[in-house]
Amino acid sequence: MVRDPVNGCFSAEIMLRNIGVDLKWSFMEDLVPSDPRFAETAEDTAFWKMLSKIGPDDPLPPQMMKQFYERCSTVLRCGRYAERVKPFLDLFPKENIMFVDFKEFVTNTESVVKQVVEFIGADPGLYKYKELPAGMAGERKGRRMHPAVRCKLVEYFREYNLRLYAMLGRDFGWTESDIEEGVDADNNNNGKAVASSRENDLVAVVRKSSRVAALSQPVIRKTSSVRRVVSITASASQEPPKIRAMEEDM
Questions:
Q1: Angle CA(113)–CA(117)–CA(120) in degrees, nearest 5?
Q2: What would the pLDDT profile of 197-244 be if each residue is shown by its tens digit?
Q3: What is the pLDDT of residue 78?
Q4: What are phi and psi of 10, to 5 degrees?
Q5: Which residues contact 111 (CB under 8 A, 6 or more apart)?
């Protein structure tokens, strides 16, 4: 599942704060000169280089949890999907991997889960769907990303997003990021989630032929508003008027 990395980064910060991680950075604060949030340090680079050389039977480095859960650079790195996806596309045919759009999943949960079940070769008719409580880890509690930081992140991820679109032949519409209605708005815990269930609430399994992991007990909020995906040609040729107006207001 892939999500607009701008919204995904802020969601990650909120989740980490809500589970008690003591972050030394925040996307809620204004930009500063040579902002350290948008650059990897030499220490970061050394860590990822070291991690890439670890074998399947080697112990994980003791600093791994700190690097993963406390560093802003790690949150940004996770949002550079083109880099994360390429190793899989180098090994497996693209048609053997299903890429789920987070917005589409939030808007049409049951329909998307059925598509996943069909993709892995199972019969969606054997599964039941039920409502689950809204997730708590992403509760906003009135917190908002700083507008200047949002604009900075849009520019930061632009090249990576376009590279992903070219790799997959699919435009997710993130080139000009927008606030996700009902997802990035203040949460009121009135939302409900829909998940697939078959006796033990199992959602999906792994497709053995492609070794692609499917969804497992998704918990999300519904939203009735979603911007439609445009073609990569259209998105590259002009900015949507709505985004232009928003940037002018900022």
A1: 135
A2: 333 332 322 233 333 333 333 333 333 333 322 222 233 334 433 333
A3: 94
A4: -70, -40
A5: none
* CB-based burial label for 200 (10 Å; 0-12, 13-18, 19+): exposed
Q: Name the pLDDT band for 76 (thresholds 50, 70, 90).
A: very high
**196 token code pair:** 């697939």
Question: What's the total number of domains in the chain?
Answer: 1
Residue at 93: amino acid letter: P
Contact 114, 98 (CB under 8 A): no
E strands present in the chain: 128-133, 192-197
| φ/ψ (deg, to 5) at 101 | -80, 120
Q: Measured at the alpha carbon of residue 29, what is the angle toward residues 28 and 32, in degrees to the nearest 5? A: 145
**Token representation of residue 50:** 């070291």
**Domain range holding 232?**
5-249
Residue 78 carries which DSSP code?
H
Cα dist. 156→38, 44, 67, 97, 226 in Å?
A: 8, 18, 21, 26, 23
For residues 168 and 103, what is the distance between their CA atoms, to the nearest angstrom? Answer: 17
Question: What's the gap between Cα 90 and its chain centre?
Answer: 21
